[in-house]
Design a protein that fits this description.
The structure is a single chain. By secondary structure, the chain is mostly helical. It has two domains: 69 residues, no CATH class; 34 residues. It is built from three helices and no strands. The relative contact order is 0.08.
Length: 117
């Protein structure tokens, strides 16, 4: 496999490798002597870079999905389709103020798009 230089993921893989080496003895696990030092050009190093890249990509996707769900929940609360469940009066006041601002922004966006208000 050809060496692919990727500084960000290489640093993540290096951190992963160093932590793996550090904690392995605590789990009665002995790592291979030929991979004790991280080498980004070795097959082991390339594999770690690839795995770290995949983990981070999947975490980012989950974060984007979580953000979309939170945005949808906010809109549902804003339009009164979902009840805001909290006893905290400050949070309720904040939501009422946000709802007014959001409704104005949504109406303006619809108007700008040629839709109805």
């Amino acid at each position: 496999m050809p060496y692919v230089e990727d500084e960000v993921n290489e640093e993540n893989a290096r951190q992963f490798h160093n932590l793996y080496e550090k904690y392995a003895p605590e789990f009665s696990y002995e790592t291979r002597k030929d991979t004790k030092e991280f080498d980004p050009k070795s097959p082991n190093g390339q594999l770690m870079i690839k795995v770290c890249n995949e983990i981070i990509s999947q975490a980012e996707k989950r974060g984007e999905e979580r953000g979309k769900r939170e945005e949808l929940k906010d809109l549902l609360v804003c339009f009164g389709q979902l009840e805001l469940k909290t006893e905290d009066e400050d949070i309720q006041k904040g939501w009422r103020a946000r709802k007014a601002v959001d409704m104005h922004a949504i109406r303006q966006r619809l108007k700008d798009m040629g839709g109805r208000e």
